[in-house]
Specification:
The complex is a heterodimer of chains A (486) and B (94).
Chain A (H helix, E strand, L loop, with lengths): L5 H9 L5 H19 L2 E4 L1 H16 L10 E5 L26 H9 L2 E6 L33 H8 L6 E4 L6 H7 L2 E4 L20 E5 L2 H11 L29 E5 L9 H16 L3 E5 L7 H16 L18 H12 L2 H14 L4 H22 L5 E5 L15 H5 L6 H6 L3 E8 L5 E8 L4 H14 L13
Parallel strand pairs in A: 2-3, 7-8, 7-9
Antiparallel strand pairs in A: 1-3, 4-6, 5-6, 5-10, 9-11, 10-11
Helix pairs in contact in A: 2-3, 5-6, 7-15, 9-11, 9-12
Chain B lengths: L3 H10 L9 H19 L30 H5 L5 E2 L2 E2 L7
Antiparallel strand pairs in B: 1-2
Amino acid sequence: MHELTLSALGALLRERRASSEELVRHFLARIAAHDPALNAFITVDGEKALAAAREADARLARGEAGPLTGIPLAHKDLFCAKGWRTTCGSRMLENFISPYDAHVVERFNAAGAVLVGKTNMDEFAMGSSNENSHFGPVRNPWDPARVPGGSSGGSAAAVAARLVPAATGTDTGGSIRQPAAFTGTCGIRPTYGAVSRYGMVAFASSLDQAGAFGKSAEDLALLMNAMAGFDERDSTSVERPPEDYGRELAQPLEGLRVGVPKEYFTDDLAPGVAACVREALAELERQGARLVEVSLPNQALAVPVYYVIAPAEASSNLSRFDGVRYGHRAADYADLNDLYRKSRAEGFGPEVRRRILVGTYVLSHGYYDAYYLQAQKVRRLIARDFAEAFRACDVIAGPVAPSVAFPLGAKTSDPVQMYLEDLYTIPVNLAGLPGLSVPCGFGEQGLSVGLQVIGDYFGEARMLRVAHRYQLATDWHRRAPPGFAS
Amino acid sequence: MLSLDEVRRIADLARIDVPEAGVAALQQQLNGIFGLVERMRAVDTAGVEPMAHAVDLVQRLREDRVTEADQHELFQRSAPQVEDGLYLVPKVIE
């Protein structure tokens, strides 16, 4: 059952060939068997999951089921889920039980999906390897000595190892697409504003966006149909009529213009990754798409700009963790200021502390114009590059990450080395565009490689069409890591 | 490049305790990050409008009416120390 896509599982349930309870028990058993080796989950609650499964079965029996009713699902542990521990991968929130549901959680509950657990992540979504979690690193199902990517590493590893059919994630600088590429799963980051941020623990508010992982582009369309939509509780939620994200899947690629930025294939890109991506582009061409060269001249500035804007917004967002209203409080303190300083020093891990300090500096008196304002101006230049490119093409395609999954510990000693991992994904976040990653082969050491498809604003349906047509001709997305197939 | 004193000052502004033994290592890491950021500071951005957000935002207005129920007991369950519906902190006024 765990090899099936969401649409196949949905059919199984609606035709009453399996119950949601059976499905949930099957996946809970897989989690119990495999997760000790992967550490993809922070919390699993079988009792809650089985209760929700029985409700879903009642709904299925009444004939009121939707496409996701009864299907097990995991949420990245930064989505607040009522009555569930929501840790954000941090000691700060180790014992935080959310009193309410995030919009995304509400949406999946309403669709009848069954929440089985909350997945591991880099603390406060800050990281590209999932090594920054208070709850320990996640291991890559393809090679347990390697990272699954981050920050949504738990969700990616759980889907790759077939411990859940789908999972949510968030992508502030590549945190869905890079782990999807590293684990051979499919992951989508929607346009900024397409999915509500309500109830998502905030990292960098102008860049954060919720998305999802699945085993195929078709799965991603179903997940988007459930997640996306206007929510007045998020002031940046975009009010648009509901859309069917799968509406273009049946259309062939003939005549579609696929932009390939000339800045993408450089010495920074591992040869094995470049070869897989070029072959994927050739497949799109064989299906009638036209490859056109485009240019993103300011692409190399994206990582520097991001490491001003994201820490600045993080330092502001994370100021709420003061040891007073929720979260960790130090045991000993002299006065109120000491309480803040000690609680925050103990509650946050080293990477989070570093980013708060960077953000505090760039926002401090005398430095704001030189750093934060300048970064916002260069951000505009990066967004303009994409606008210019999209005059010549319908989607942009290229690599997700410069290399395949790296070994645990390989980049932890130098934060800057870790940051440069995200050079292909960060520009998309800065512009607020949608992007996805689908598996396109195996590169160095036989590890999975992702093809990134970037769309224009609200161009998800077109991106998903490209990914789906590619998947009709290839089977990379059906490969399971050895040891997790059966 | 940040001096040791600047690192101490930022940590103070951020309300994060940094033990004296850790200041130098932190200074090195932060300067590594600012070295990366330096590349963007040299870009000519004269006349470029800063981009604060990916989407053009218009603040929505709503009617001024009660939309939230009082749930302070539920919300305060996550607080480290509460008494009579109040958050407890060390004494700030003698």
